[in-house]
Amino acid sequence: MSKKLLLGIFFACITFSVSAQDYFFKKFHPFNPEVPSPEEFLGYGIGDRHTRHDLIVAYLTKLSEVSDRASIHQYGQTHEGRKLVILTITSPQNLNNLEQLKQKHLQFTDPSQNPTNYDEVPIFINLAYNVHGNEPSSSEAALLTAYTLTASNHPEILNYLDKGVIFIDPTINPDGRDRHTQWANMYQGNPLVADPADAEHNEYWPMGRTNHYWFDLNRDWLLAINPESRGKLNWYHDWYPNVVTDFHEMGSQSTYFFEPMKTNGSLNPIMPKENYEDLNNLFGDYFSKALDSIGSFYFTKEVFDGTYPGYGSSYPDLQGGLGILFEQASSRGHKQTTDFGEITFPFTIRNQYTSSITTVKAAVENKAMLRKYQQDFFKSGLTNASKSRIQGYTFGDDYDANRVKAFVDKLLLHKIDVYKSGNRFVVPTRQPQYRMVQTMFETYDKYRDSVYYDASAWSLANFYNMKYSPVNSLNLGEKVTSTKSLVNTQAVQRSEYAYIIDYDDYNAVAALNYLQSKGLVLSSAFKPFTVKTTVGNKRFNYGALVVPVSLQQKKDADTVYQLVQEAQQKFQVPTYSIPSGYSVQGVDLGSRYISPITKPKAVMLIGQGTRSYEAGEVWHLLDTRVHMPITKVPMRNFGGLDLDKYNTLVMVSGSYNFSESQFNKIKDWVSKGNTLITIGTASEWAIDKKLVTEKLTKKEKDSTATVERKPYVDAPENIGKESVGGAIFKVDIDVTHPLAFGYRDTTIPVYKNNSVWLAPSKNAYATVGKYSKNPHVDGFITAKNMEENLKPSASLLVSEVGSGRVVLFADNPNFRGSWYGTNRLFLNALFLGDKIEVPE
Ligand SMILES: [Zn+2]
């Protein structure tokens, strides 16, 4: 085809659909012809296809090149290497003065300053899109919004640019978005197929909602485990926007949702009332008028809650901004049949686009009020703190510097002031980020509501098993500005005899894996002992890792020393040089209680029927903390899998429907001496199918009791409150058991968000974790659930099958990649699994 002809076709397309694109932005003509529309740039109209993230970035980059209203900034990179960008759009004059405007804006976030020029500085608006990859309408709307703001010369738009600085984050989750984009485009029919049964509308596991490791990034703002959130948080605390959007999609059989959310009080108790009463209603009024004007239906108030602070629509609320949630009924694909006819991709995009422009309008028209609100917010943080008797929180851990470091990292990322005095850390309450301090340390047991959209507990100190206490007087010490120097391990000296790695440190497992992968054999101590080291006598706890030098058949002493040094430097674990095997106290180094451990060869079942979040958490843990590969086998391939190539099988929660021969394959394999690790409903499965002889906690079923009649309308609330949405409970653990090696505390907090209730084992040595007598730490649970189910149950069991064993976790130890306090239990199951016996 000649170039001319191609060009001809190209222009023909443009003329054809410029009018089609007017469906979105007709009212904002005239547009600057120098600025390419999305359609001109992409070669197809918005809504015709799903746009790949690299094209989104390319288009925004183009806008920054051709327009004097825009500049682009990369704030991070995803696991898969995609760029995370923000396009800043404002008037050319504002853009030239952005640094001064920023300094003026930031004065309002500093309680020690008292600026009153509320109306002078343009308002800072962060339009953020597509945190859930398979809710794609919003990124397409981002392109239209960016075009409108850079190209339109309509007086209304020029006014917004004069009075606002708009930060467009087009795709919060590019890895998930591209997964879904590929799916929707590859099944797109011509003509379109609206039948909901078509493949286009039914993505395959793990679907596009989550990021590379199948994490929900709309829960990660507080936990900050992933680079997407970490990059965003750094950007956030640089700019403190006044208004932040969070665009989503929901089921196709619905309309459109915007805030205010559910009113009956499942609200974060530390949030100012003005936020969810005044501001949300004020903005809601704008949204309803705008959607009315295009004939779109919507609803507010009846669902969703903004309690959990890790949503994209709630975190800004804790930073003096207004976070706004939008939910659009999804076309999931390009066109889908619903009860009202058809819902099309362009229709969903238009609603999101309309809300985007309306957000800018509402923010600009209320800018003085929003800015004063932010100023009051940070000032009230200090006032509230001064009313509290608690002066601060102190925490620390003498045995595990790397876990403490990980927690401090989190505090610093949220701009919480932290001080260090000796081995203790102090977080004073009287600081501008007081509400984040509350979020990290305060726990609740009284609730105004009982049905939660997600977690009802988020005290992060408990996630990290951080022993902390409130203090009434402060001894601050030195301010911590970075985590770099928090772990200081002494360089290990050379030994001809042995090295010992202290297993109490969080990174000990990573060091173990590193040395095993280099071919060294390590032993684990099943009893504590005290031994002479080159830096004096040292008592080692359960699980201490011993590297015997002369027993390494394939490595000489120099090589062993080099590897041990490498492991120590890489993971900063306390490592000691041992001159003699004769202990000062307890077992000697040649004891049968110090026993060589087998390198795990691990496989995990994934795919349709398994819970992608939990599988992703296992994968993420091993990749990013331990640096150990794990084979992920889709369920559809299980039949052909040679299990004998592995010694450890991980089954996360899921609905497992194995054939009899497949079940026997697992059972026979375990019986040969291998380890099966089950989490959540997979543990229930192992009991139901009688793979193990354990039992579930009996549920009382009295068939003769009369059932109390209740109003039909209350059913969702009544039923909803009996599910454990996510709460923290105390568990007593047996620290002498290999599964609990590395723990010093006999009581640890665990996260429960399921209804898996394991009965304690009949074997006296098999219940490794049992809920404590008074188990409540944080979050909502009904009294009935607490008494009948939780209190009598176990959290962690081991059960023998032949010469192998099944490790049954009732609760997910790896929850959202942030439970440093319990994921050691899981790693122990993986690395020490074959050492576990169930004594009769
Ligand atoms: Zn969503």
Can you offer a commentary on this structure?
- This protein is of the alpha+beta class and 840 residues long.
- It contains 24 helices and 31 strands.
- β30 and β31 (804-809) form a beta hairpin.
- The longest helix has 23 residues, at 3-25.
- The relative contact order is 0.08.
- The site of zinc ion has 3 residues, from loops.
- Keywords: Carboxypeptidase, Hydrolase, Metalloprotease, Protease, Signal, Zinc.
- InterPro entries: Class_I_gatase-like, Peptidase_M14.
- One of its GO terms (molecular function) is metallocarboxypeptidase activity.
- One of its GO terms (cellular component) is extracellular space.
Short description:
This protein is α+β, with helices and mostly antiparallel strands and 840 residues long. The protein has 24 helices and 31 strands.
On the 0 to 100 scale, the average pLDDT is: 94
Molecules bound to protein: zinc ion
Spatial order of strands in the largest sheet: 24-23-25-26-31-30-29-27-28
Distance N terminus to C terminus?
Answer: 80 Å
The residue ranges in which pLDDT falls below 50 over 5 or more consecutive positions are 1-18
CATH superfamily of the largest domain: Zn peptidases
Under CATH, the topology of the largest domain can be stated as Aminopeptidase
Q: Which structural category do the helix and sheet elements fall into?
A: alpha+beta
Cofactor: Zn(2+)
GO biological process, one term: proteolysis
Protein name: Zinc carboxypeptidase
Domain Peptidase M14: 48-377
